Amino acid sequence: MFIILLPIIIIVLGIVIDIGSMGLEKIKVQNTLKDAISYGLNNDSNKNEIEELINKNITYDQIDIKKDDDISITIEYKSKSIFNLVNNKIKYQIKGYKKNKKIILKEE
């Protein structure tokens, strides 16, 4: 009986590890983008400086940075997966602006 259940247990464990790994990667991306937007709004940085800051911290497939009075960043990346059991292409978008000298961040 144990021999029959062992492959199922290994597959479920692999899926759990992959999903956990993807979750940690998403948190890292979220924090990096929030820091980049805060840096851009506080230091009146241009798009190249913001992209350079992001490049130092994460790898991605595609990025789109829009900067006016606010900053909007859309990023597409493949989450690092150990077993590749789950679809790991992720798109994340965040927007930030200043209101009364306070930075407001919104995930879209």
How would you characterize the overall build of this protein?
This protein has 108 residues and is an alpha+beta fold. The mean pLDDT is 88. Helix 1 (2-43) packs antiparallel against helix 2. It has a four-stranded antiparallel β-sheet with strand order 1-2-3-4, covered by helices on one side. The protein has one domain (2-107). The longest helix has 42 residues, at 2-43. The chain is 49% helix and 29% strand. The radius of gyration is 18 Å and the shape is elongated.
Write the layout of secondary structure elements.
Elements: H1 2-43, H2 47-57, E1 62-67, E2 71-78, E3 89-99, E4 102-107
Antiparallel strand pairs: 1-2, 2-3, 3-4
β-sheet strand percentage? 25-35%
Taking the alpha carbons of the first and last residues, their distance comes to 48 Å
Mean pLDDT: 88
Structural class of the helices, strands and pairings?
alpha+beta
Report on the biggest sheet: 4 strands, antiparallel
Estimate nothing, just give the exact number of structural domains.
Answer: 1
The global form is elongated
Low-confidence stretches: none
Elements, N to C (H/E):
HHEEEE
How many H/I helices? 2
What is the spatial order of strands in the main beta sheet?
Answer: 1-2-3-4
What's the total count of β strands?
Answer: 4
As a whole number of angstroms, the C-alpha radius of gyration is: 18 Å
Question: Percent of residues in helical segments?
Answer: 40-55%
Short description:
By secondary structure, the protein is an alpha+beta fold.
